[in-house]
């Protein structure tokens, strides 16, 4: 969008083009004056990012370890329901953005999805990877405490950077390479085997092993990095809105998700139904997973690299405290704290160079978070 063009009313200022958020972010960073309203929005964005990230991880962990009567809910069915809910929300947002006109909504869906089959099919690969990633999230949090998961999952910064260098030919600065080295050291320390010297550790609520959880996180990190870079590569220069992209991803996600339900959980579905084990907490997890990426797509306009670093740090700290005091499934050690500090420092350092040069965070990771968040 050129400077002379006027934005459309409503949400279209956010979702007109893939670079609209990055452009607005660049303007806000280069502007010497920040109004009080902009400052409030920035800190509100910080709160929303922290709340969304922390609440999803903690509620999902709690729902997967809660001991109740009857069978546990199927993670594969929760993934499908989250995709369906996300599609419905995006349809409502497009409907709202075009003055509640069914004719315009129908035209947009026809022009952007049905009349562009090849463009839509390009999203099948990242959508399939995202579906796998969402299922891996449940596996990881069934076997890892929330704090360990939060810290280890920051490895996606490394995988995204490496795929960006290899697939897009991007060049990383000295601070970014240094931050990746610090990141790997921090995650290695977090996963370092240790035994509590103060007595027996809390009895884990998960029936799985930590190794399974770590492997699930590692696969999710690699899939996250590849999908984000691939997404950036195929969508570069397109003009579709964020909401249309999420509908396209959601449609493929429904197909892949349903395949997962019937391939891996088909027998249990036939025995007890798709909604076995569902309770209000399960529906909360589904809603948080569906709304997560859309919330970030809205607030990322005000979130620079430093703000995202703060959000990540606060989320890790909150997850650690709540896992220790409330879920009682985590016994932190000095080695864990050292590793967590290194990971938090690496998160800030990775975004420092782009921030100092007044560059928008148009990385594959930011695109991944904007368009789809597991």
Automatic annotation (TrEMBL):
Top-level taxon of origin: Eukaryota
Topology in membrane: Multi-pass membrane protein
Keywords from the UniProt entry: Membrane, Sugar transport, Transmembrane, Transmembrane helix, Transport
SUPFAM superfamilies according to UniProt: Multidrug resistance efflux transporter EmrE
Key word Lipid metabolism present: no
Gene Ontology MF terms in the entry: pyrimidine nucleotide-sugar transmembrane transporter activity
TM regions (residue ranges): 43-62, 74-96, 146-165, 172-192, 212-231, 243-263, 283-303, 310-328, 334-352
Any one of the GO CC terms: Golgi membrane
Keyword Hydrolase attributed: no
InterPro entries: EmrE-like, Nuc_sug_transpt
Similarity-based family: Belongs to the nucleotide-sugar transporter family. SLC35A subfamily.
Identification of the protein by name: UDP-N-acetylglucosamine transporter
Organism this protein belongs to: Oncorhynchus tshawytscha
This protein's encoding gene: LOC112227131
């Amino acid at each position: 969008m050129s400077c002379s063009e006027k934005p459309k009313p409503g949400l279209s200022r956010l979702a007109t083009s893939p670079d609209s958020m990055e452009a607005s972010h660049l303007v806000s960073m280069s502007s010497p004056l920040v109004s009080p309203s902009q400052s409030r929005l920035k800190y509100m964005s910080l709160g929303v990012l922290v709340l969304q990230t922390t609440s999803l991880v903690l509620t999902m962990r709690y729902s997967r370890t809660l001991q109740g009567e009857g069978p546990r809910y199927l993670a594969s069915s929760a993934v499908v329901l989250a995709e369906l809910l996300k599609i419905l929300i995006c349809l409502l947002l497009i409907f709202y953005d075009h003055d509640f006109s069914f004719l315009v909504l129908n035209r947009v869906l026809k022009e952007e999805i049905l009349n562009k089959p090849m463009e839509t099919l390009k999203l099948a690969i990242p959508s399939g990877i995202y579906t796998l990633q969402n299922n891996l999230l449940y596996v990881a949090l069934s076997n890892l405490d929330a704090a360990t998961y939060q810290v280890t999952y920051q490895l996606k910064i490394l995988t995204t950077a490496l795929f960006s260098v290899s697939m897009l030919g991007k060049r990383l600065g000295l601070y970014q390479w240094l931050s990746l080295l610090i990141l790997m050291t921090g995650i290695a320390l977090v996963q370092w085997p240790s035994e509590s010297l103060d007595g027996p550790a809390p009895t884990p609520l998960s029936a799985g092993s930590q190794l399974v959880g770590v492997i699930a996180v590692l696969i999710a990190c690699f899939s996250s990095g590849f999908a984000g870079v691939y997404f950036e590569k195929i969508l570069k220069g397109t003009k579709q809105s964020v909401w249309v992209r999420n509908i396209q991803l959601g449609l493929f996600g429904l197909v892949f998700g349903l395949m997962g339900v019937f391939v891996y959980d088909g027998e249990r579905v036939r025995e007890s139904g798709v909604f076995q084990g569902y309770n209000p907490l399960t529906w909360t997890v589904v809603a948080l997973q569906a709304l997560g990426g859309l919330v970030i797509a809205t607030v990322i306009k005000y979130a620079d690299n430093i703000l995202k670093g703060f959000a990540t740090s606060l989320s890790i700290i909150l997850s650690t405290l709540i896992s220790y005091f409330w879920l009682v499934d985590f016994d932190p050690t000095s080695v864990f704290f050292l590793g967590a500090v290194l990971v938090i420092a690496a998160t800030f350092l990775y975004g420092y160079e782009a921030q100092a040069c007044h560059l928008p965070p148009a990385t594959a990771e930011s695109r991944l978070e904007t368009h789809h968040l597991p």
